[in-house]
Amino acid sequence: MSSDTPQNEQHGKTWEKAERKFTHKPASEYYDPCQDFADRSLKCMKRNNFDREMCGDYFQAYRDCKKNWLNQKKFPGNTQK
Fold first, then answer.
1. What is the pLDDT of residues 13-68, one digit of tens each?
2. Which of 25, 62, 63, 66 has minimal CB crowding within 10 Å?
3. 55: burial class by Cβ within 10 Å (0-12, 13-18, 19+)?
4. CA 62 to chain centre
């Protein structure tokens, strides 16, 4: 079976269109600004033998960050904390 079948050609065109769209979007649309807080939470958990109580501040910082980020995405002009 040839690799240039109509189905493969269509798939290639679809991918090119999606790839173009993905590579030309601003980085902020694919970047989670709260990832640093998530990483710190996981590091805290590992350091403290996965005792959630020891890492409450890290979890709260992540929740606050995520809440603010999602609010900004819903209401772009909103700069509430």
1. 777 777 666 666 555 556 788 999 999 999 999 999 999 999 999 999 999 999 99
2. 25
3. buried
4. 13
